[in-house]
Amino acid sequence: MARTRSDRPSHLTVHAVVLLALLLGWTAALGPVANAAPRDGTAALAVRGGDVLYSAGSRCTVGFNARSGSAEYALLSGRCAQTAGTTWYADAALTVPVGVTAGVSFPGNDYATIRYSGSTVARPGEVTLGAGSGTRDITAAAHPVVGQSVCHVGRTTGYRCGTVQAVNVTVNYGGGSVSGLFRSNVCSEPGDAGGPAFSGGTALGIIVGSSGNCSSGGVTYYQPVVEWLSVYGLSVY
Known about the structure:
Blueprint: E1 2-3, E2 13-14, H1 16-29, E3 52-55, E4 58-61, E5 64-68, E6 71-76, H2 78-81, E7 87-89, E8 97-105, E9 111-116, E10 126-128, E11 135-137, E12 140-141, E13 149-154, E14 158-173, E15 176-184, E16 196-199, E17 202-213, E18 217-224, H3 226-232, E19 235-236
Parallel strand pairs: 12-17
Antiparallel strand pairs: 1-2, 3-4, 5-6, 5-19, 6-9, 7-8, 8-9, 10-11, 13-14, 13-16, 14-15, 15-18, 16-17, 17-18
């Protein structure tokens, strides 16, 4: 069972098996990065938040790009990255290497950090909002606050917005628990895991779980980004 704690006197119980099934489904259902494999076979022009990186046995959505000095990094779901190899590529054929795993934290947290290398692929500090919707420049990161507006981008359900409902949420499921999450009233579905969540140009977290769906309504859980950036000494662009 999942236990929710927040700074409000409200509580939510979530069936762990539902969350686990969704998380497993998202690892398998992530789609291809939008501009990583052009038809002419040339390398990707850029990898942004909301795009996908590939590794042996896995493909994971990039939540945000970040940096420390001149070094650049991708922020991914830890649960997705822990099943992957250590070298990451911009294309499903694994022919355009873009970086290596710098660290993974799961369970307890749900985040991974990939250090970019080379200059074949650009890594702008933007998130892709979906087909025909352009991009959003991300210039800051902050802790989520109950009542705050939040938007996220999922590979399946696209760009959606709502409100932060709770912070400091703990989810227990097979293999361990993840704590310190936050929850919104924005729906998400299999394929959306790892997608960026933000408020305006401020990064808040990445999608890591959900309950319900976008037909009947649901909620989404996120790994906050501020602690993550602090652990690795990173900042968003």
